[in-house]
């Protein structure tokens, strides 16, 4: 565990040191910022990461929240290392914001209609259709997919595939005829 914490500290310290290199809004010695931030992160990284883990739902969220909190406090403090309570308060606020955002997204997704889920009774028909499309020759299948699923016109299909528009229309018609015949056989 100590090795992982040391690696996390080094990664956070490198990120904190790069803050001083990427944001030149403060007229201060960049090497002093890098050194002071590195020292601050080495002293507080483990505690901050543990707190972020406690405040979030997973490790990735904890790392994201911690990174956002460090950047925000770095900007707030004018490039100087912040007081630890400010960082902990910022971690807490960012974690609350993330949880609220995730909850809103989840509610939206659960409230949305099941547009992308076909009714159970059409599953067999969908499988038959999928198999019929797979059996089409590639030239017919390509035009069919571009027309039906991509919504292209015959002119656009012709430009995409490099064939005349009338050939695209003919291939589409032939594909539909073959699909009808295949689906008729499957239903018998």
Helix content: over 70%
Uncertain segments:
16-26
How far apart lie the N and C ends?
A: 64 Å
**Major β-sheet, in short?**
none
Tally of extended strands? 0
The sequence of SSEs as H and E is HHHHHHHH
The geometry reads as elongated
Number of domains: 2
Please tell me how large the radius of gyration is.
29 Å
Mean pLDDT, to the nearest integer, reads 82
Q: Structural class, from secondary structure content? A: mainly alpha
Query: Number of helix segments?
Result: 8
SS strand fraction:
under 5%
Q: Which characteristics define this entry?
A:
Arc Repressor Mutant, subunit A, 79% helix, 2 domains, 188 residues, elongated, 8 helices, mainly alpha
Structure description:
The protein has 188 residues and is mainly alpha-helical. The protein has helices at 2-22, 30-55, 59-76, 84-111, 123-135, 138-148, 154-161, 165-187. The chain contains 8 helices and no strands. It is elongated, with a radius of gyration of 29 Å.
Blueprint (SSEs and pairs):
Blueprint: H1 2-22, H2 30-55, H3 59-76, H4 84-111, H5 123-135, H6 138-148, H7 154-161, H8 165-187
Helix pairs in contact: 1-2, 2-3, 2-4, 3-4, 5-8, 6-8, 7-8
Could you write a compact summary of the structure shown?
This protein is mainly alpha-helical and about 190 residues long. The protein has helices at about 1-20, 30-55, 60-75, 85-110, 125-135, 140-150, 155-160, 165-185. It contains eight helices and no strands.
